[in-house]
Amino acid sequence: MPTTEELQTIVSANNWTAVLPELLLGVLALALLAADAFYPRHRQMILRATTAAQGGILAYAVGLFLRADPGTVHVYFAGSLVQTQATELMRVFFLVCSLLVSHLGWVYLQKRSLPRTEFFHIVLVVTASLMLLVQAGNFVLFFVALETLTIGLFILVAFCRSSRFSLEAGLKMLITGAFSSGILLFGIVLLYGLAGNPLLPGTATDPLNFAQIGAFLGATGPAGEANAGQPLAVMGAVLILVGVGFKIGAVPFQIWIPDVYQGAPTPVTALLAVASKAGGFFVLYILLAGPLAPMWDTLFPALAVITGLTLLFGNIAPLGQYNVKRLMGLSGVAHAGVMLLGLLASHTVDWAFAAVLFYLCVYAVASFAVFEVMAHLAPEEDSDQDLTHYSGLMRRHPLLGGVFLVGVGSLAGIPPLAGFIAKALIFVAAFQAGLYALLVIALLGVVVSIYYYFGWMRAAVLREPLEDDPDDGRWRPQPVVTPVAKFVMVLLAVVTVVIGIYQAGLTDVVGLR
Amino acid sequence: MALFGGIAEFLRGLEAESPRVHTSMLLFGIFGPLAFAFALAISGKLEAGAVRVAALLGFLLPVVSAFWLWATYASMGLNGGYAFFVNTPTGLDAIGVSLFLGLNGISLPLYVMSAVIGLAAGLYAIHTNVERMRLYLILLLTMQGGLMGMFASIDLLFFFFFHEFALIPTFIMIAMWGRAARRTVAIELTIYLTLGAMLTLGGLVALAWMSGAEGFNLIALQLALVDAEHQKLIFGLLLIGFGILVSLFPFHSWAPRGYATAPAPAAMLHAGVLKKFGLYGLIQVAVPLLPEGMGAWAPLLMWLALGNIVIIGLVTLAQRDLKLMLGNASVMHMGYAFLGVFAFSAAGAGGAVFMMIAHGLSVALLFLLADSIERRCGTADLRELGGLGQSAPVLMAFFVAAVMASIGLPGFANFWGELAIFAALWQSASPWVLVPALSGIVISAIYGLRAVSCVFFGEARVNYRGGDLRGLEKAGALLLLGALLVLGFWPRLFSDDVNAAVGSLYPVEPPVAEHFLAEE
Predict the structure, then answer these.
(1) Which residue has the higher pLDDT, A464 or B177?
(2) Looking at CA atoms only, how far is residue B378 from chain A in angstroms?
(3) Model confidence over A278-294: pLDDT tens digits?
(4) What is the distance of C-alpha B62 from the center of its chain?
(5) Each residue of A14-48: pLDDT tens digit?
(6) Cβ distance A369 to A496 under 8 Å?
(7) Banded model confidence at residue A366, pLDDT cuts 50, 70, 90
(8) What was the pLDDT predicted at A387?
């Protein structure tokens, strides 16, 4: 732990500019609440100004990313904060996600009488905590950022206070989230205690710091006994991975996903499916490549089994699913499996992690395209979206239908859409890393996944539009699409198609060379 | 001949003056149809006539490109080697992928064939009046672009990519415009073919990365062979993967129902061109790059190919529906092409390539004609049809000619393909294969002629309307039949290039023949 003097130097070094985007987001979130409290009549304008400010912060983060040097690592606040080109990319990623989620929220909340300001406020806070999370250099910042994120998500999931499903989802997420945080904390404490033990070789002076824990676990004693082989170390690492596994929804920790995805308001489902999952994956990579790297050989079998199960479950469970939000959740498990496969490959193949980032970006764009359509088609009871809401979409609203097909097609990995190239990259990486058995499961998974994605597309393209019937609760009003929403959706679809054919822009950004 | 000499001279001069003109023709042939499809997709409301004209232009572009490149290639004297390179990095350098296009003596004839069949399918599609015509044509144009790109790809990942590009519209077209039970068939086809595609993708990735060439560039891969043990594994993956896509027995069950259900232009393009992806992959990629693997899997391949010929041949005999019969027949004829690959000699592979071209043209023609019969009679059931010959003599003439071609009578392109394959089999280690293979000819003669007699002779039993073959329908059929006849009488148009190319990839004398003689 840093001493008082060290803390003083840290503060006087005045590195606060390093977290300027996060600080600005926090200030913006508070200013939003304050402005809303004082000028409730100008709410519309305040929210617009907030979105514009978000865009400004995004521009700043893009500038930071462009200035970042590949290979240079900046460490601030006594090792709490580690910035690389990849973390700068993730900042941009999360800010883009927050803008899209805000837009989804705009579309969604417009149709319902729900408080708006709080929604945008929490989205901003969650984004800031995600951005800090991926820059974490020790377990303190890691845990604090993760908890801020999780608590924000609890509130957002239960945002539809009038809906039983939403409340139920919030409760389920609260329980599993608290449970997994507890497990995670337990793992952290075990590693902390072990790494700080002066009797062991290579004792860490700061046993919460990722780099020091990594050095400690890599050290071996005079008799050749490795710290990484200590039962407590193994236990701690496994518990930490279980905690993170809950966040990314890897099997067998996926149990909360369908209910929470279904109950949460659609914009929040998008936030969970994309931003929160991306954060989980990045953190998993940081842990596996940093502090837990010396234990790779011990952890690999467990991770491989988890990856295989995740791929199997994610592709089989959505078969026969009619609720599209559950479908997105369950098929998201399959995507998590593919990304886990890439992470496993990244241990031996140096470009594999860049391929995972590529996959994340492609997955995000395609998912948001689908969620945009979902937000427009959602009925009064948001959790009750099933395939019948998509019947004849192509005829009812060709634009929504087209965007929907591009998005789902990309998620299914159909050429020429971006999803195909992203999957192919991960598969090549897995092949190079020699993960043949997992690769076979992944390839078969693609075949199975065609079935449920196809069913969804079939409803949109081939089924006749159903007659409106306000009585059966399946009322399907013609969706109202604003010009902004049109612009956003067309942009997402165009990006998906372009990346499918010409990848150079994105591969440069994720550092895939 | 003076005219040809003049053209060749002109093209050579053009090459010297601006070398990029030919490569841009290649890009034109691939991306032209796609550009037209895109333009149609975003054009908003258009008159039906304008849509048709635009689509026709989109189908004409590949034909122009194909004949231009063919003439140029002939004037270059490359001896079967690659020409017209386009190499554009698309940002996937990390895995050794770039958009690398070019044509050699094997792919160029197939490129020409796919352009011709595409035009015929396009003409037929424009002729028929289906609901939501514009989407129909957009999908067909997309398919056509994918098909042209597939044969022009040197990069294996793009080879696969273009194949999928063409495959997806097939599924949609079956699901939307197919015959009875179209949705079931569409989903069955989608899952089955995706399985084949994934196996193929796995095999191609393995091939690229185990060779040490660290990339998907086919030309570089030809210099870096995989070690023997892995060759067997990879070849197995590719054989099953490609086999599913080409309907190799017993992975064929998707094909007859799929073709019978698909709307005719989709069936023409799929059975005629897209299905050749697997055979082309075997001939151009898998067998030359994995000779040891081929050696290990050859016996199985032989039995499966015989299964195609004999078992599916007998199944075809039992069909009562004209389109199902044609679907089965097209599966059966793939057996000959597989046997050509099995012979593992320049003659066999060359014969298989020729067979692919001839079969593509003839099966496309048959599907076109079968669909026009069905449209006129309202049924394709052979037991209900009859006596069409009196009211539609031209249709009958075309159908009889197409059946003759698919049986393999001299004068049609199919004859040369089958002849070369049989000659190669005779030289191979197991000449006895010829017996069941030749009996297949008899089988196809039986069902072909029986179909002719059921449909065109006897009493007219169905309510026939629509007159004889007309307009664009006739133009499409004429195009295909003309191509079959031209190649039948003048096979050297293609065979020189094909022979030169396979000659550099395959042994002229099959290596196994010596073992056979030594055992005697």
Answers:
(1) B177
(2) 24
(3) 999 999 999 999 899 99
(4) 16
(5) 778 889 999 999 999 999 999 989 998 888 889 89
(6) yes
(7) very high
(8) 85
Q: How far apart are CA B350 and CA B177, in angstroms?
A: 37
Answer whether A458 sits within 8 Å of B175, measured CB to CB: yes
Q: Which of B91, B93, B165 sits opposite A506 (nearest CB)?
A: B91
Does B181 contact chain A (CB < 8 Å)?
A: no
- Sign of the dihedral through C-alpha A247, A249, A255, A257: positive
How many Cβ atoms sit within 10 Å of the Cβ of residue B112?
A: 25
CA distance B230 to chain A (A): 13
Residue A469 has pLDDT above 70, yes or no: no
**Residues B240, B261: Cα–Cα separation, whole Å:** 24
Is the ipTM reported for this complex over the cut 0.85? no
**What is the Cα–Cα distance from B6 to B12, expressed in whole angstroms?**
10
Q: Which of A415, A431, A458 sits opposite B206 (nearest CB)?
A: A431
Nearest CA in chain A to B97: A425
Alpha-carbon span A200 to B57, nearest angstrom: 78
Contact residues, chain B, for A502 at CB < 8 Å: 90-91
Tell how far CA B469 is from the center of its chain. 25
Task: Kindly report whether the peptide bond that precedes residue B109 is cis, defined as omega within 30 degrees of 0.
Answer: no
* Cα angle, residue B467 at apex, residues B363 and B130 outer, rounded to 5°: 65
Distance CA A463, CA B424 (A): 52
Q: Which of A415, A458, A504 lies closest to B164 in CB terms?
A: A415
Domain ranges for chain A = 4-510
B164 and A414 within 8 Å at the Cβ level: the answer is yes
Q: What is the pLDDT of residues A107-134, one digit of tens each?
A: 888 878 777 888 999 999 999 999 999 9
Q: How would residue A475 be classed by pLDDT, with cut points 50, 70 and 90? A: low
User: Can you give the pTM of this predicted structure?
Assistant: 0.88
DSSP structure class, residue A227: G
Contact residues, chain A, for B187 at CB < 8 Å: 451, 454, 458
How many CB pairs (< 8 A) connect A and B? Answer: 89
Cα–Cα distance list, A230 to A186, A195, A303, A403, B77 (Å) = 16, 11, 19, 52, 71
Helix H or strand E segment including B128: none
Nearest to B377 by CA among B475, B456, B319: B456
d(CA A420, CA B92): 13
Interface probe with B: pick from A447, A448, A453, A457, most Cβ of B within 10 Å: A447
Q: Chain B residues with CB inside 8 Å of A429's CB?
A: 95
| Every domain of chain B and the residues it spans | 2-519
Residue B515 has pLDDT above 50, yes or no: no
Q: CB contact, 8 Å: B164 with chain A?
A: yes
First to last CA, chain B: 50
Segment B207-256, tens digit of pLDDT: 888 887 778 888 888 887 888 888 888 999 999 999 999 999 889 888 88
**Cross-chain Cβ contact A428/B161 below 8 Å:** no
CA–CA gap between residue A420 and residue A358 (Å, rounded): 12
Structure tokens at A241: 């991975």
Tell me the two tokens of residue B424.
Answer: 């190669």
Sign of the C-alpha dihedral, residues A456, A457, A462, A465?
A: positive
Highest mean pLDDT among A53-67, B203-217, B498-512: A53-67
Residue of B nearest to A501 (CA): B90
